[in-house]
Amino acid sequence: MIKLFVMDVDGTMTDGGILVDGCGNEWKRFDVKDGMGIARLKKSGVEVCIISGRPSKATAARAEELGITRVYQGVDDKLALLKSIAEEMGLTPSEIAYIGDDVNDVPCLEWVGLGFAPSDALLEAQRVSDVVTPSRGGYGAVRDAAEFVLQKNQSEGTSKG
């Protein structure tokens, strides 16, 4: 049963594009379908977490809007942090799902019980993932992964009863 769903941001929750104006203001595009997937996960009892390699006010704002309290930005070693979170929560890798799209996500994708990569992720991430989503990053990839987790948890919950 998946109890923790962890997301990278740029290239998974977004299409990887970052718009910056002359004053240094940053914009990112997030998909509402992904937001609904996150809400559905949370409602089902799955904790949701963000681990991003770069800090961003836009990411912090979106996480707050979605009620995600475990938000870690500017992380160089994502796997070390993920292992620390798992230990703190008393979780094994098999209880964790992770979605990522780039080389810095590969160690996490290999370590967790269920790894996802968007359809436009780098091949290195796709190769080590359990599932490559039909959708691209920023265009429903997180929702695809969320629905997969929900179905998996429901089927495991039903088979144990």
Automatic annotation (TrEMBL):
Keywords associated with the record: Hydrolase, Magnesium, Metal-binding
NCBIfam families reported for this sequence: KdsC-phosphatas
UniProt organism field: Thermovirga lienii (strain ATCC BAA-1197 / DSM 17291 / Cas60314)
Subunit structure: Homotetramer.
Protein family (similarity comment): Belongs to the KdsC family.
Needed cofactors: Mg(2+)
Protein name stated in the entry: 3-deoxy-D-manno-octulosonate 8-phosphate phosphatase, YrbI family
UniProt: substrate binding residues: 10
Xref: SUPFAM superfamilies: HAD-like
Annotated CDD domains: HAD_KDO-like
Keyword Hydrolase annotated: yes
GO molecular function: hydrolase activity, acting on ester bonds; metal ion binding; N-acylneuraminate cytidylyltransferase activity
Residues that bind Mg(2+): 8, 101
